[in-house]
Amino acid sequence: MKYLQIHPPVQAALAANRAVVAFETSLISHGLPWPKNFETGQKMEAAAQAQGATPATIAVHQGKIRIGCDAPLLEHFARAEGVLKVGRKDLSAAIAEGRDGGTTVSATIHCAAAAGINIFATGGIGGVHRGGEKSFDISADLSALGRTAITTVCSGAKSILDLAKTLEVLESQNVLVIGFGTDSFPAFYARESGLKLEHRVDTPQQAAEILRAQHALAMESAILIVNPIDEEFAIDWHDLKIWTEQAEVEAATEGVSGKALTPFLLSRIGALSQGRTLAANQALAVGNAELAAQIAVALAATGIE
Predict the structure, then answer these.
(1) In whole angstroms, how far apart are CA 83 and each of 49, 93, 223?
(2) How far apart are CA 216 and CA 227, in angstroms?
(3) Which domains does the chain have, with CATH numbers?
(4) CA 56 to CA 76: how far, in whole Å?
(5) Which listed residue (24, 45, 248, 290) is catalytic?
(6) Residue 278 and residue 256: Cα distance in Å, rounded?
(7) pLDDT confidence of residue 260
(8) Annotated catalytic, 24?
(9) Predicted local confidence at residue 288, as pLDDT
(10) Torsion of CA 135, 244, 268, 193, to 10 degrees
(11) Rounded CA gap, 302 and 305, in Å?
């Protein structure tokens, strides 16, 4: 792709068919406050490296798609004002305008796949907002997963969403959802939502075998591997629902909508939880980076036919 700039360590790993894991930057630029955002980005990269994978944090910088960021660039996105939140549909405009953008799930997986990266990790995907059947507020992450052949490791969809409807849309997009060590769809900060899954794996090697089969079948949609947050940081699902309802009332009162809605809701829930969700967000993101790296290493061990 014309506008890709691949960081040398990432390029070397790809050329040697070694394990590479992609990460987004909207979590850093828009999802977490300074300095927790920079710290989380560094910890995610370190977690991947500890498992033997090369991290490739993706961003739009000065109109170029960066596949892999060094520490100064990562800090830039953690500190800078005026950084765009770039979804898949925004990439061309951000490039043409020479802007800086933190890439969302939809943009990141598009760029990762273009660079030849098979595995991506994040905290949680977007989905169908509560009341989405009337508002049509449905994240572009879902359609992007339906058209991108990449494996995404996450802790389900964000807990502020309508998880049942999100799963329905994922099914309609031909996205295979697999629980890692769980039979229930995780609810981001909560380990279980009560929504049962059809497929489960318990080791990175089992996951890698499914990835190989998916590739051999030339599937053009993603695999979603959902990994529950560690019990130490998990938050009760009932508490989360109460906080979400309160935050939604505040958002409606203040007229918050569109791209601003998710950050607003997560920020308010963070305040209502007295900071517990901030620690949980970092823990699940780092845990997913670790698991994604383990799967990437297992996949690289025998390659993809």
Answers:
(1) 27, 13, 29
(2) 24
(3) 4-302 (3.40.1790.10)
(4) 16
(5) 24
(6) 21
(7) 85
(8) yes
(9) 99
(10) -110
(11) 9
Residue numbers of the chain with a pLDDT score lower than 50: none
What's the rounded Cα separation, in Å, for the pair 305 and 291? 22
Summarize pLDDT for 25-47 with one digit per residue, the tens.
999 999 899 999 999 999 999 99
Q: Which residues contact 176 (CB under 8 A, 6 or more apart)?
A: 199, 210, 214, 221, 222, 223, 224
- Confidence at residue 173, expressed as pLDDT on a 0 to 100 scale: 98
| Residue appearing with tokens 């899954």 | 197
Q: Which of 15, 21, 8, 11 is nearest to 49 (CA)?
A: 21
Measured between alpha carbons, how far is 264 from 248 in angstroms, rounded to an integer? 9
The CA distance from 117 to 259, in Å, is 27
As a whole number of angstroms, the distance between CA 236 and CA 94 comes to 39
Q: What letter represents residue 53's amino acid?
A: A
The single-letter code of the amino acid at 93 is A
- CA torsion sign for 188, 192, 194, 199 is positive
Is 165 designated active site? no
Amino acid of residue 197: L
- Pick the catalytic residue: 45, 158, 248, 290? 158
